[in-house]
Amino acid sequence: MVAAMNDVLLFVVVGAALAFDFTNGFHDTANAMATTIATRALPAKQALGLAASLNFVGAFLSISVAATIASGIVDQGQIALPIIFAGLLGAIGFNLTTWYLGLPSSSSHALIGGMVGAMLAAVGSSGVEWAGILEKVLIPGVFAVVIAGAVAVIGTKIAYRFLRDIGADTATRGYRLGQIGSASLVSLGHGTNDAQKSMGIIVLALVANGNLSADDFTVPLWVKLGCASAIAAGTFMGGWRIIDTLGKKVTGDITPPQGFSAEASGATLILGSSYFGYPLSTTQVVSGAVVGSGIGRGESEVNWSIAGRMGIAWLLTLPGAAAVAAAAYGVVSVLGDTAGPVVVGALALAGSVALFLKTRREDSTDAGLNDLKAVPA
Question: Where are the transmembrane segments (predicted)?
């Protein structure tokens, strides 16, 4: 009986992890394709299809980030399935909120914040690997955003120099073609980095349930396939509100040289961080690069009001997701370790569907979003 209840709970937790992976996909579609769609380098549907395909492929390239998430954020010896479930709920809740507001916040930090908040509520600070979070998440995250922005500033200035030397029409066509390649690399890096985060969480759940050993880290093939499919499906859905923000509002009407510079600098950092096992926020890296490309273009091209809202969202992500997760764990613990996740999960699913339908109705009357979705070849 106990084993059967544990299996039910594991099923719910894995489902929540895949749901988070799905929200990660549509929340972060803008990272790769916002500028590509905005500059008309690719038609909208082709851009989403390309991003989804490369997200799927990227998920199989490495497991370094998955290992960091599974063992470097919380203490495996103190973790339990209800804690993991509450952490995922905090991450999903924060992702959906920022997506509704059109803010390109960090899905990665939402997940880490959720896990930390649930762990603090359940066992206290001893269950959190503070050194790992500092060394693997916070410090690399700050440096990556600054470096991405700086490289994009330089790249955009160089790109505009080519516009003068070669001719605007010829250079613009070349940069649009270049954007397809650079956006593809961002998509590949996003799959490599972000899909692994959900893999790490599922492995953590399997360890907590006794299905895997904590001493021999491995990611089962079915976990890789599930996470790759979930993030690809979410990406294909398209997070249009965030695409609109990154593609049109941060720096006004973004140009092909800007888009190429932002994507190229972001892709380099994301792929590098995946190799070293740093669970970077691809959203923050690409957003920093987009802001840098606006600075590089000059002529007061950055909308600092929007950039400021993004910055506030970044600062609130870790504590915000942690607070939601801690509250979720409180409710789950009252209802019981098995009934709690089932009941809370069902309510969260119903709320998510209602929010999605509400957003669809609102977006259907938004002329700007409809223009983006209809971007032709």
Answer: 48-67, 79-101, 107-125, 137-160, 312-332, 338-357
Distance of alpha carbon 98 from alpha carbon 94, whole angstroms: 6
Task: Give ∠ CA 297-154-186 in degrees, rounded to 5.
Answer: 90
Nearest to 195 by CA among 72, 23, 316, 317: 23
Q: Say what angle helices 81-101 and 304-335 make with each other, to 10 degrees.
A: 150
Residues 48 and 237: their CA atoms lie apart, in Å, by: 8
pLDDT given for residue 14 in this prediction: 93
Q: What is the DSSP letter of 135?
A: I
pLDDT at 13 over 60: yes
Contact 114, 128 (CB under 8 A): no
Average pLDDT over residues 54-78: 83
Q: Is 8 exposed, middle or buried (0-12, 13-18, 19+ CB in 10 A)?
A: middle
Cβ proximity of 16 and 88 under 8 Å: yes
pLDDT for position 377:
47
> With 70 as the cut, is the pLDDT of residue 41 above it?
yes
Placement of tokens 């899905």 in the chain: 107
Question: Is the pLDDT confidence value at 3 over 60?
Answer: no
Nearest partner of 90 among 206, 196, 201, judged by Cα: 201
Angle made by CA atoms 24, 354, 311, in degrees to the nearest 5: 40
Partners of residue 128 on adjacent β-strands = 74
152-186 as b/e: b if 16+ CB within 10 A: bbebbbebbeebeeeeeeebbebbbebbbebbbbb
Helices (H), the chain: 2-38, 44-58, 64-71, 81-101, 107-122, 130-133, 139-166, 168-208, 221-237, 240-244, 256-276, 282-297, 304-335, 339-363, 367-373
Give the distance, in angstroms, between the CA of residue 109 and the centroid of all CA atoms in the same chain. 9
Q: What separation in angstroms does the CA of 91 have from each of 33, 42, 48, 112, 318?
A: 23, 31, 23, 8, 9
Q: Is the pTM of this model over 0.85?
A: no
Query: Nearest-CA neighbor of 27 among 237, 182, 223?
Result: 237
